[in-house]
Every structure is written in structure tokens, then in C-alpha cells.
Amino acid sequence: MRSPLRSWRSLSKPQRTELYLRWSLYLMALLLLIAVLTSSGLALKQADGDPALMPVVRVSLLLALALTLVLLRTYRVAIDHYLRRPTGHTRWIAVSVCLAVAGCWTVLLLGPKADPANPSDIPFTLYVAGDLLLSTFGPVCVGLRPKPAALTGLGMLLAVTPAVLLAGVGVGATAGFLVGQGLFTAFIGSSCRGFAWLCAVVWELDAAREAQSRLAVAEERLRFSRDLHDVMGRNLTTIALKSELAVQLARRGRPEAAEQMAEVQKIAQESQREVRDVVRGYRTADLHAEAIGARAVLRAADVACEIDLGAEADRLPPPVQSVFGWVIREATTNVLRHSEAARCLIRLRQEDGRAVLELENDGVPAVPLPSQGAGTGLRGLRERLAAHDGELTVPAAEAGTFRMLATVPL
Asked: What does the UniProt keyword field contain (predicted)?
């Protein structure tokens, strides 16, 4: 069984944010028990432990416990609905609203009545009813749109008003209770909806980041297909036309057919050479271009990227520059896919007759993310470096940091 800290580290940033915001709302539901306990305790203290209050205190605590359990489930399905996940949120919202209203009527009718001669003497059951209504309106605002949520909150207040009057509370005190309750209810509801909105924004940003990565891949494929079309389109059209002309000339017995086919052969050979040039350019990684591209991509992902190639980069042989360009490209991909980095360092130096490319980033989870698999990127880099008598090493680094060294002898 994994420890809570290990489980937390295995989550991505959006998952951590959602878990934090969910439990923030769950704690708001648990506060209902604390509020009812506080109101009941103060009432018993003021009444010097009057036994007549014990039945309504027990009923209030049982109602608060039952509503808390229902609200925990309601918050869960309401958040799922806000995040556009399939759930039966309306059923749980209806249950929690009905339970809250029924609980308000129960405690107000069972509890002590207000003293008409002392308008400032408000029964503690009125505070309990207010706590029940406040706690219930949170998931209502999360699971319903603003207008239906506002109408539901207004309906809850109107449904409880007769019970408040039957409890002996004066008309003026009842009006004050409704106004104050409405203001606090609106504040609680907007706060809860704000938590859900923040969670949805985090997931949308994460989806946008993934879409940006897929778009970059699609753009690269489009560039390659465009280059290939530009190279082969004209040549293939010429080959088709000259082949058709050669067929017509051959049918007529004209000697020019052989000349046309010779030109077709020449164009085909030229096309092969141009395709090889396109593929070679696509498969070649320029060191400076890859460094600039890595900085742009990482900064777009909100990763501070520091690159120090120095003057040694231009003095390196072209094959070494190319293989280092591949290292930077693969390292940038790994930073985006397998870490939650905030900082990345790329440094090139020479020591002991060897060119050393150092790459370092933070944000490495202690437990690999679920999206991390047994990739072949580092294996491919080792094979490329081995072709130049180089090597790729991953020395030990600080916790949460990944460090990689690519070395090639000069």
C-alpha cells in the first residue's frame, strides 16, 4: 500500500489541484457538524443544562450528521457534473435540498419558542436552521447553473419562512433572518462555484497544452508533406506527360519515343536525388536551430530555459553538432512529457578533449506518472552518440532533478 505522500507525488498538477479543491469543498460540508455542535453547546450552557433541550439537541445533531453525509456525496457528483463528467447530480441535489428544508422544519417546531416579550431572545434552533440552509446551498451552486441555483436558494428560504414564524419569531426578526441568510447564502454559493470554476480552468489549461503539442507535431508533418509535394509534384507531372507522349510516338513508330523515355529516366533520377535531400534535411538536426526551438517550446510551456552553447558550438564538426541537436530535441520532449519542470538548463562545454552537452531540469516526480512508459528515446540517443564514439550518461542528481550528459570525443 502506497503512502499518502507517494500517492500525492504520483498525481499530475491538474489532478493535485482537483484533489485540493474537492477536499476544500468537502471540509465546508464537515463544518456543518461543527456549527451545529457549537450552537447546541451554547444553548445548553445558557440554559444551564436544561433537560428539556436535550431531545431537540439530539435531533439537531442527527440531522446535521445525516445532511453532512448526503452533502459529501452531493459535492462529489456536483463537481463531476461541472467538469462535464457523466453523473446523476440532480437527484442528489434534490435529496439534499429536501433533507435541509425538512430538517429546518423539524428543529424549529420541536425546539423552544421565542419569547414575544423579549424580541432579542432568538431560539438556538433558528441558528441550526440557518446552518443547514447555508451548507446545502454550496453544492446547489456547483451542480446547477446560476439562475436555477438562485431560484432554488430562494425557494429554500421561502419554504422555511412559515416554520420560522411558527417558532414564535417576530415578523421583523424573520425578515432580518431572511435577508441575512440570503446574503450569506449567496456568498457561500459563489465561493463554492468559484472553487469548481478554478478546477475546470486548470483542466482546460492542461488540455490546451496537450493540444499545443499535438498541433506542433501536425505542423511538422504538414511541413514535410508540403516540401515533398513541392519537390515531387512538378517532376511527377512531367514524367506522366512525357511518358504519355512516348507512348503515342511509339505507336506511330517514331524514333523520338526513345528520346522521351530517356528524359523520363533522367527526371526520375533527379527526383530520387531531390527526395533524398528532403529526407536528409528532415532527419538532420541543427544544433543552433534545435536550441532556439527548445527555448521557444519550453517558454511556451511556462518553463524557464537557460541555454549556454558558448563559442564552442561553431567549432564543433557538423556531425557532432547534428547529434547534439538530436539530444536537445529528445531532452525537450522528455521535459514536456515526463516532468512538471519550472526550470531547464542546457549547457555546452569542452573538457579533456571531449565535447560535453549537459541538460538538467527540475520537476521530476518521485513516482513516475501514469503516462510514462518504457520509451526508446534515450536508447536511440545512445545509438546516435555511439556512432561518433560518444556516450550518454544520467548521473545522480538532487531529489526532483534530472541530469543528463552527452559526451563526444573531439
From this structure: Kinase, Membrane, Transferase, Transmembrane, Transmembrane helix, Two-component regulatory system
